[in-house]
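Hello again,

I reread your note about wanting to compare the complex against the isolated chains. To keep things tidy I'm splitting this into two emails, and this first one only covers the full assembly. Below are the input lines as submitted, including protein chains and any nucleic acid or small-molecule components. They are followed by the predicted structure of everything together. The single-chain runs will come separately.
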Amino acid sequence: MTQPAAGVAEPPPSVISAAGVTKSWGTNVVFSDLTADIPHGVTGLLGSNGSGKTTLLGMLLGLHSPNSGGLTVLGEDPAQAGGDLRQRIGYSPEHHNLPPDIAAQDLVRHVAMIHGLPKREATTRSSDALWLVGLGEERARPVGTMSTGQRQRVKLALAIAHDPALILLDEPTDGLDPVQRDGMLELIRRIGTEFGIDILLSSHLLEEVERIADNVVILNNGRVIASRRIDELRTGKGGMIAVIDDSVDAVVASMERRGLVVRAERARLRIGGDQPVEQMADAVRDAIAENDATLRRLMPVQQTLEDLFLDEVYGE
Amino acid sequence: MSMQTDAEIFDRGYRRYDGERSGISTAMRSVWLNSMQRALGLRRKFRFKIVPILTILLAYIPALAFLGIAVLLPSELVGETVDYAGYYGLISISTLLLTAFVGPELLSTDRRTGMFGIYMASPLTRSHYLVAKATALATVLFLVTLVPLLFLLLGYTFVGLGPEGFANTMALLGRIIAGGLILSVFMTLLGMAAATLTNRQAFASAGIVMTIIASSVLANVLFEVAEVRDAVLLADLGNLPNDAIQRLFKTSEIIDVPGWQSIGALAGVLAVLATIVIWGYQRMEVTK
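Full-complex prediction:
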């Protein structure tokens, strides 16, 4: 079900690729040098409010052209491909406003039709999409009578009904309570993994991106300051923690001679550095052996997205 | 023995769509149809149907009355009442009300409810969107600017009071279509221009009505009190399209100026209104 149909061309290696993109609104520089390759899967687009996330989504849809630089989405230049590209993209806007007096299914069907689906197919798929997001029983209800959580689900149905290759979700959990948020995140993860639709999820909530995304892109001051796979965060850049019984000062000195950065909190050593985690472990072992110290515990520190964000944004 | 089934489908799954996708013209047709449904209150609660139904019915009352008279009175008396060009004056109120109701409904509401952003994230461009919306508004206006006159022509023809000969019938039909077109295009652009300037439907509706009334009052005050030349009456936006229509039907013009001035003024106003719409939508933000 999630495999590409026979005869469909091989997808490009990156879903989205930006190289040196600049964008200004008048004198306000939004992007000074946006460079990133976003691979397939679910990608979280992180950045504080006003960092240009929504502007970037607009550029990916071909609604704004970059002032300079190259941008491709699904292998095409959005400014050139325009409508042909947007036909393959699903978009869920940040706002919760939707036409209040239209039934959810009528709205979803209409949007599916303007994305090129024949009426019969649009009718079936709009119903299926609403069932999928948990609004099957509510599909005939006017959108205006729905809660914020339900409207967020209608927006998700709007984005997926026409079977896009890429979905752009702008703050899809905004306004949801914790239970609704969990449900929405689970649904987004499912769409990204089971259905094979690539997702770019704009958010300012680190925790939700960490929960469901395969990749993360962090925007700050008009630049991409980090772009990597989430699972890379868990493979050592956070350093190690060692607990030793004695000779703390000598061990610290030995470690520092080996290029490690050590912060001692009594017998607990927080060890960092640029080395890969395997080399770091070897250096720690050698420093402890050199001083005949007793090692009680040695463990890698898993870096969280919050650590990464703070490191990259504030250099902490 | 009856079998009881408790089976339910909880997950209808997700299917990929590998079929053909239609082009931009189908997308525009979908917006056109959807907009007309919305304008006429179709698939919406009854309260949304009241204004369009009443204003459209208002435009048919004179036609029904004329046809009733034609059926009941001797033909030599009825002949005096056949005045197609004059019919445009009778439908001016319903045309104005329908424009004031439908124009903002089709444009302002889309912006207020975020639908404009959703349309712009689809294959449609701003131009496609505006053309589809303008066509929808003009089509709805045809229900008061064109169909009643066609109904009248058909009715008169059936009772033997229609134009004599095929050529005359076609000529009158052409004038009726052109007249409906002139009035619909004018009111469409007026409605769209007002709706471009505000997201508030009520403000846009009031703006449309006030523009017509204020321009009429201003032009007539200047003409009567200040004794400015007749050309000042071209600023009366309520009469400007009607004057062109009267000239089309070769009846006496409303504004006593040469034809080129009247047509030029109409074209100029249409250009200004179109510029407001295009300019407004070009600079409108979708995402920023």
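For quick reference: The mean pLDDT of chain B is 90.

B.
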